[in-house]
Amino acid sequence: MGQDGRGGTGSTGTGPPAAARLLARLAVLAAVGSVVVVVLAVGEGGLEVLLAGFLGLVLCAAGVWWFVAHRGAVRLLGALLAIAAPVGVVVLFAHDGLWLTALVLVLCWGVALACARSALRKARPRRVGRGVAGPRPRSPYLIMNPKSGGGKVGRFGLVERARALGARVTVLDPTAPADVAELAREAVAEGADLLGVAGGDGTQALVAAVAAEHDLPFLVVSAGTRNHFAMDLGLDRSDPARCLDALTDGEELRIDLGDVAGRAFVNTVSFGVYADVVQRPEYRDDKAGTALTLMPDLLVGEGVRRLDARIDGTPLASQQALLISNNPYVSPDVVSGGGRRPSLHDGELGVVGIRVEGAAEAADLAVRGSQSTGLTFTTARRVEVTSSAGEGTTSSAGEGSGTDEIPVAVDGEALRMTTPVVCTVRPGALRVLVPRDRPGVAAPAPRVNWRRLLDLAFGRHGRTSEVGASGGQGG
User: How far apart are CA 219 and CA 42, in angstroms?
Assistant: First the structure.
């Protein structure tokens, strides 16, 4: 099993493992079983179970939309509907004696989905998480933010441990904002042969850009709040002190860096609704309250802004939100912060577009998920983002000049950028030093694609190896 030289992925075999084929067949069997349950129960309320469940899902989704996108009485009605719809379905099943049919149907479908995801995960080519042996740095330099992650720097004794390992450490002063990129450049000028950060992903990106500029190794210490970058590198997020082991026993990975208008990013760049919300000063102290206050104006208000994009030259019009990631996430969970990237060296941007204009579209999203017309998932090398005229845009050179500024969230940092905003990827631009002993990257659950699953269960070996290669990327 070989490495590809950039942080190393490889695949084994030409066909799927036997366990993957067995799980795929079990998934198909469970799915057929759910259909059989409905057919056998047609005269005893089987169709009622399906229709009631479907209607409850649609009404709940519509209620959530009214709650998020409106204020006053409509918001209250939406909240009541979102709660009452699923409760009403349960009460109906209990009253009509349909609870057993509903339970068996849910169990069959749950088993089908669980087996399907397991099958596709096992069929996917195995990723090799090892890099090349990293030389021990002679003069490492680390920047640490004592406020990140609720004070993880102090709680885990990161400053003392880093200094004991020979690193020079600068601890940021929370009362005096510093230019961390400039601090990193000064350290390079003074002979630093490694740069590192214990802090949030936004700070990580700024210093990583300097490391890439000087072709120096970069050390990620998982001392932020969510540590998405550390997670996708396979680092220990529960004990950031383990990241410092890379200074004495490390491996080097070559990964990509995203670029938005000349600024590096390690995770994501957000445009639209989320970017508008994080611009507000009160967001840091009250995320949910700020979002609920602003959402009606951002979604359906007067002069609401929409985003247009060109994705490798292909147009994508009138989006409410766009999320561009440094390498693609494997599931829509990225929208809620739960997605994962199985690779950081594929040389591609992930693109997620969202457009939900009303309760009907919200219901379509709830029912069809990633197949909804309101969601776009794709990859690209270059994405150019512009904005339609609306409140909240400012022009620096007059109307029609094409120089509007729009809110942008870069790795969670609130910025404003002049349109068109261009996002690209810099393949293999960053050398990352990671500890040899680390948890590794957990295989993310793939989205279920029944066509690929049937091919995996009953197809020929040559075709099913392709299924495994793309099982996590399918719709």
Answer: 61
**Residue 86: enclosing H or E segment and its boundaries?**
helix 72-95
Place of tokens 């749950």: 110
pTM beyond 0.90: no
Q: How far is CA 452 from CA 192, 375, 470, in A?
A: 50, 21, 9
- Summarised one tens digit per residue, pLDDT across range 194-205 is 999 999 998 999
Asked if 270 and 385 touch (Cβ cutoff 8 Å), the reply is no
DSSP secondary-structure letter at 134?
P
Q: Please report which residue ranges of 143-193 form alpha helices under DSSP H.
A: 152-155, 158-164, 180-189
* 3-state SS assignment for residue 440: coil
- Of 213, 267, 275, 266, the closest CA to residue 419 belongs to 275
In a 3-state reduction of DSSP, which class is residue 361?
helix
Specify the 3-state DSSP secondary structure of 142: strand
3-class DSSP state for residue 310? strand
275-279 contacts at long range (C-beta below 8 A, 24 or more positions apart)? 275/321, 275/406, 275/407, 275/408, 275/409, 275/414, 276/305, 276/392, 276/407, 278/407, 278/409, 278/412, 278/414, 279/407, 279/414, 279/416
pLDDT of residue 256: 97
pLDDT in tens, 334-347: 555 557 888 899 99
pLDDT tens, residue by residue, 160-201: 999 999 999 999 998 888 999 999 999 999 999 999 999 999
Per-residue exposure over 439-468, b if at least 16 CB sit within 10 Å of its own CB, e if not: eebeebbbbbbeebbbbbbebeeeebbebb
Please report the DSSP string for 103-133 in residue order. Answer: HHHHHHHHHHHHHHHHHHHHHSPPPP---EE
Place of tokens 């983002």: 385
3-state secondary structure (DSSP) of residue 156: coil
Residues of the chain predicted below pLDDT 70: 1-16, 42-46, 124-131, 301-303, 331-338, 370, 389-403, 442-446, 460-475
